[in-house]
Amino acid sequence: MQHAVGPATLGLTALIIVASACFLRSASAGHGRDSIADSHSIPPDTVERWAAPYRTWHYYPRLVLTAELEGELGFRMVDGPNVFRHNGQWQMFYFGFDGTGYQACRAVSDDLLHWEGRGLVMSYGKAGAFDYGGVAFTGPLYDSIDVRRPPQLAQWNGRYWLLYGCYPEQGGYELGSGGQGLAWSQDGLQWHRASRTTPVLSIDGASAWEARVIYSPCVLRHEGMFWNFYNARGLTNREQIGLARSADLKTWQRFEGNPLLGNTPGGYDELLAADPEIYRDGDHWVMIYFGASRNSPDSTLHAHTLIAFSRDLLHWTPHPEPILRAGGHPTGLDSTHAHNVSLVYNPDNHTRYMFYCAVGAQGRGIALVTNRPLPGTEAE
Asked: CA-to-CA distance for 334 and 290, rounded, in angstroms?
């Protein structure tokens, strides 16, 4: 068993270790890892049927959010949308890169198409801190992750909570070992670090698959525990997806069966399986993530959006083909990458909106596809 990471009182830590031990044993006792995966594998025809609603998309003709939205911050690019409802309005957390590192911002919208900037929500940590190199707000705690409901920020113990990705070094793109911090808010607008000195998850105590960099989290609450899905880079220099659980958002126990989702030789995620987003669709769980490989005809690295399914959140069966391919946008907005998604349902027009990071003809920005055409807006 791996060690828990993060600050806690001795009594609470003991309780968490006991609960986590039961969690790990129930997932793995009496079986080899391959036999567990085989017994939980979802049949190909079911995977195909479950994936079908996520395969037909209509492209919005232009980026919905660019680095120019907060021009005074000097961003060169923006990434990582997280879209939700709060205070009766659509909100988006995203992060921008200014050459020094990441900073987290917020934007608002009435129609999910036109966004107004609301400035920084969190900037660089203090010199020497684990998040000195910048922060990315990627893991808000939502009240629901049902694909048929718009997500809203959820309170726990009287506060809103969020896990964020971060880096220890300034001066470049994602420098240092990376990790995760915890933030809280009384109103969902002003956010505060839960700790300025200690990350809640880092490479401390990591296994070989995650020993170099811990990346951004996706967090949900299920069966009385918090579940933290994240990607990491290990000694093979490839990224894979893993899981940690916590009773208090501060002390995390890694799943002994990690990584949950690895790299497929010759597949679209041969080099990277990254940035998981978890949703509930009826009787099963959905993971939308991105894969990167050089299996394209030009041997260039491309990132595509992929999908996997689970019945228990622990054992995942991916579909081998992307649900959104780089190069699909008719204007070339995503000619290099189409990844890092946020999926939301709009009950006003019964439409799913999938925001994603598009890298292509106009640099790196936030693009949009919908499962229904939006009158007067669809790209040619």
From this structure: 14
